Each structure stands twice: as structure tokens, then as C-alpha cells.
Amino acid sequence: MPLNTAEFTIGITVSPQGREIIEKVMEAGPISRNDLTKLMGVSRSTVTKAVVNLCEQGLLVEQEYEESSGGRRPVLVDINPDFGTVIGIDMGITRLNLCVANFRGDILASKQMPITINDVSPERFLDSVNDEVVSLLHEAGATTESVRAIGFGVPAPVDEVTERVASPTKLSGWESFDIREYLRTYYPQATIRIENDVNLMALGEHKIGAGQGHDNLVVIKIGTGIGAGIICNGKIFRGSNGISGSIGHISIDRDGPICYCGNVGCLEKYAAGPAIVERAMAAINKGESDILADMLAAGDGRLTTEDIGMAASQGDPIANAIIVDSAREIGRILAVIVGFFNPSLVVLAGGVSQVGPQFVVAVHRTILEYSLPLSSQHLTVHKSEVTNQAGMAGAVLLALESVFILE
Amino acid sequence: MPLNTAEFTIGITVSPQGREIIEKVMEAGPISRNDLTKLMGVSRSTVTKAVVNLCEQGLLVEQEYEESSGGRRPVLVDINPDFGTVIGIDMGITRLNLCVANFRGDILASKQMPITINDVSPERFLDSVNDEVVSLLHEAGATTESVRAIGFGVPAPVDEVTERVASPTKLSGWESFDIREYLRTYYPQATIRIENDVNLMALGEHKIGAGQGHDNLVVIKIGTGIGAGIICNGKIFRGSNGISGSIGHISIDRDGPICYCGNVGCLEKYAAGPAIVERAMAAINKGESDILADMLAAGDGRLTTEDIGMAASQGDPIANAIIVDSAREIGRILAVIVGFFNPSLVVLAGGVSQVGPQFVVAVHRTILEYSLPLSSQHLTVHKSEVTNQAGMAGAVLLALESVFILE
């Protein structure tokens, strides 16, 4: 956990023992001093001293909790939810999710909105994001001064050291832009982390979604782009350069179309949202699907992946074939990943994953078809049930993990 | 690190602090009590007490070391190499590597021999392996009673809990065979670990081979079969069911030949040793290569992957094409793995990796061709320089890691 590097000089200073106690309380929830002592394998007096210090610092609170058995009410140590406010932001290409959480990570208010990111400069975009944050803080009854930590997810690779957006990305104008530095002008007192959106989704799924209890899991986001987020031994795994999960630009056909990344036949050109819409438009132009043509007309010349999912659910064989073809390409790549990494869970997230049940079924079938039964027999494949919440929840968690600096 | 589970009831009992000291000394080599104290962040007296106990137990020694500067000779703590003997065994389908090491992991004697594993029962095979171990112990000046730990690598998936051979494997008659229980009859006092051979190779490469300094690396063994071993954050990564790295039976062609695993078009059917030999035999039968035909005749009707490598080095275009085709299939799978996992190093090991320089070059080129520059630009691809030592060295390391039981 990157709790303490030169990059995170803004934060809350705690002792090593204090940090360990905070981590344990965050993991376990309200807990007695006794149980903390057992968990940490140190002396009771060490725990007592550290807990008292942290309570004085305002980071922890101790209070009586109801005992279900009706016995003496135990005094439990908990994170002080009012110590500060945490902002979670999950920026997509077409959609923004943001939330305000207390210092225990409970989400107090959240908001989702469609965005068109490439029409304005990063600065103007972030200004308008901040307007939304300020109004959400107000809704949650918190001030901008109370913000202690911000987690910000971007749909792009993120340089592990500078935390700037790396190439290739569909965020034109954002390459090398320093989001952290810009947000710092608004929140100089806050620890700010910029992270790839799918890594945050993986963290969110692990904590609040289908991934609870799965310590080795993979989230595949199939939206405007395609990327994977990895939880390995319970933590985000970023690889040796911080760019693990870059599967959208694996070439699956050397004779395929040229991709914006410069390569040919990338997975995204076959299975991401724009590729699916493009294939549906081609089918409409060839007069192959009346249902899709009607939807295009109803949408004033604009067709979405949701439309294609709806056409499939109405029995349109072309729409169904387009969805299943996309799913099969995802499934073939996943067969390699499942054989190699042996996760217990694959979560399919992003807009395309939500088009209809046949998408998840076709991905799962393809994995079973292309991989060894030994690798896939205990594998669960799920559609994300929290696809719009996972990223911002992960952003809050990462921000909270990063806020402490060792004294 | 699986230092203490119900499965490893045979071992050396140490305190939690004692175990931590042993781990630090194993990692760092000879070290002063002062440096240990700093490294562990505990009090000097705690370290002193634990070191004295471990010395009394015979696990550690303290001795003066030469100071290069000619100053006062420091007293350093080290593992007592004579505390016990460790056996490392790396069993392939056609080759056996074994070694005897001291308790510090230094290899004292080693041996390599060709084997034909499927002609005899597992019991008879292990009896003859043990004969070799006994003679190697003798050569190293050690007794069978001194053996405290054994690491045993098998070319098959290994059930994580029972440590028995799992399917599919080319080890016919070994499915579910309990190697550990059988070896225990010879070495009842020893901690015994059974592990997949490629996982052990990955551990060995990380410690003594090209993988030193690479905390996220992948070893691909291409021999009679194909498998991957993963080092993730410096440790063997086994996945959620202990079968990570099962890439030999990923289907790469639904119209391909039937594999012994029951699926069709498995990677092994295109890129492993037997597939390469089969293609060369077909070329000979069609009269396409005189050089290969001469080698077949010289080999009394038997052709090896080494022969094919030699034919390629003599300029035979057919032999070269067969090698490059195999390498390209490996490279395509690796492009997915590199994009997903973002390792800093890929090591190619096993017989096929050693056929000639064009193999490694073609694998590397294919990775670059099929993957995103962001993922592959900092990637190193190496042929293993220790392909026959890595597995048995990894077996010794795993055995040493597993020998301690917490009191």
C-alpha cells in the first residue's frame, strides 16, 4: 500500500503502530482494545497508548455498542467518521460518477451524470467537476475545508510515479496533464490520488460488489474502451510499470482495421462500444435489421449499445449476433487470462456488459470452450451489479489508504 | 509464505520473532544484530534475546567476518549451514535434476540425468530417485538423517491442499499419487513440499537467474509440455486454486487437432517439443528437408528438438520455419499475458527455448507486434541461462521457506 512516498507529502501523520491500528479498524470495523491486542500480537499497554493518542488526534472514537445478548455493552474502537471528508470521482468517457464519503468510507451523497469530455480543456472540465463536488459537499452537510482525501479515476493508463495520464487514451488533450496538481489548487489540504478507473472498479468490486471474499479477481470493463483491473492477494495489482490490465490494445487480427493506438486489429476494434455500434450501423445500411433501423430513427440518428441490447431482447438476430461476437472476443482473451492468473472471479463491467444476459453467458461459454476445465471449473463469471458505484467507491478506498504519512 | 498450516506438521518450531529473524537473515545474508534491529523496528534487547535462542537451537551462528577496510572485524549473524541438509528435486518428463544443499541453501552437489518416467510405477520411480539422492548425499558428505527439508517439482498441476498431482498431466499413473507420503517413508523427519515445476523455476530464476531484481516476472517453460510460472511482488503466485500458469491447454484454434486433455487446438499441439518434432517428421516424409532427413537417419530414426535447432543453424529453411512458428504461437499468448500482467521480465525456459537464438527473437518480436508499446517497451525477454538449475534451486528455496513451524 503506497502509504508513504515522497509523492504524498500531504497527509495525516501517524506512528507506525498508529497506522497499523487504523488499518485493522478499517478492515474489521468497530473492535475492542482486547481484540486489537490479539490481532496485532503486541502488548495491551502498547495498544492502549496508541488508541488514546489516536483518539486525542481525533482519528478514532471509542463508544459503547449495543450487545445483542443484552449483556454489558462493550466499548469499541472505531474510525471517527467526522474526522474529515473524502471525495471519490470516477470519470468515464461519457459518464461521471462522484460521491462524498465520511472518514469511515460511508458514502453520504453521490451523483451520476452524462459528460462530453473532449469538448473542453482539462482545466475547464475539472472546474465543472469541482462545481459538482461543491454542491455534493453541501448536500452532505460538509465543507470544502473538511476534505482530507480525494481519489480520482481516469479511463486511461496512469503513470505510476507522476500519476499523470499516459498514452494511448481517448482523453485528447489530457496526455501528461497533471490532474493532481490542478485539484490541489482547490483542495491544498487534501491527499490526492489519480488512478486508472478499472483498477478502482476492481477495488470497489472487492469491497462492496461481487468480489467480496475473492482475493484474486479480475474486472473487465467494456465500454468506450476495454481494460482490466486486477485484485491479487486482496490488493490492486499494478504490474511492474503500473499499467497492468492494458488488454484493449492487444492485437487479435493482424489483418484487422487500424486502431487509434497505431496498431492493427486491437480487441477494442471488435468488442468495445463504438465497434458494436459501427457494426449495427453497417447492418442498418445494408437493410439487414428493421428493428435497429427503427431505433436509429427514434434516436434521431444516434444509436447506442443499449439500443442494440434492446433490439436483441426483442428478438433481432443481427443485434444478438453483434453482442455475442463481441462477447466471444472478450471470452477468448479471458481464456488466456484465466489459464494464466487463475482468478476465482471475473466481473464484467462497463456499458457493454449491461446490454443483456446473453453477453455474460457468451463470455462465460467462450472461456469454458477455450480454457482448461481445471482453470475454469471453479471460476465464477458475473456481470457487475455496481458498475456505476464500484469506481467511485474504489476511489474513496484508495484515498483513505493513502491519507496517512508515517512520522 | 505457507510456513504454518496443518499440512506441515513436521518442521522446526520457532517463535514468531525467531521466524522473522531467520527470514531477514536468509534474505540479507550475514548481518549484524544492529542492522537486524533497524530492519525489524523492534528493540535491541528483543533481537539479542531471539538471536541467542536461535544460536542455542543451532539454527543461527555468529562469527567474525573480514572487514575489507581492515577495521575491527564485525560479528555477524548467519544461518548455520550445518543445521541440516536440504534436497531439491526437479522432475521433468524426460530429465531429472537433483541437488543437495546445506541449510543456507548453498548447493553442495547436483546431478542431472535422462529419465523415462512412464515405464515404471511412481513407487519404483521414486525408489530409484531416492537411490540417486542417497548417493548424492554421500558425495556431499551428508547423512540421510540430516535431511530436514525436501522440495520436489513435478511437470503437472499440483493440488494446493493435498499437494498431489492433478489432471491433466503426461505423468500417466501419477494422478492423485501422494509423492509426499511416499517420500516420508524415507525421510520421516523432513518437511516435504510438492510443487509444480514451472513455479519452482520461476522462484529459482528470481533468486539465481535472470530474474534477480525483478519482482514481477513470468517464466514460460516450453518442453514436452508448456506452462508458466509467476513471481508476483517477489513471491510465487499460485492463483485462487493453485493452478495459475496453466497456459499449455488454452485452445488457439477451434478447428485444430484433438489434445490429450480432451479439448481441441491447444497451444501445446502447436508449440511444444512433440509438436515441433511431428512437423519436422511430416516435412521429412514429404521430402522437403534433406538436412532433417539426414539427422533422422543419424539418430537411428529418432529426431529431437535439438536436431531441429541444429538443422536451422545449418540454414535449413523448413527447420527454421518450424521453430519460428512455434515461437510466434508462444508470443501471441505472451502478448495477452504481458498486456494483462505487465511483468518486467519474461524468461523462456525448457528444451524448446534452447534450440537457437531465433526462437527467443521470434517470441519477442511477436510480443512487440501484438501488444501495446506501453506494455512491452520496458519488457525484457530472455532465454533462461539456468534452465536445468532453476527448478531444483527453487525446490531448495521452497523447502527452506516451509521448514519452520510457529510455536
From TrEMBL, chains A, B:
Organism: Phototrophicus methaneseepsis
Descriptive protein name: ROK family protein
Family indicated by similarity: Belongs to the ROK (NagC/XylR) family.
Matching PROSITE patterns: ROK
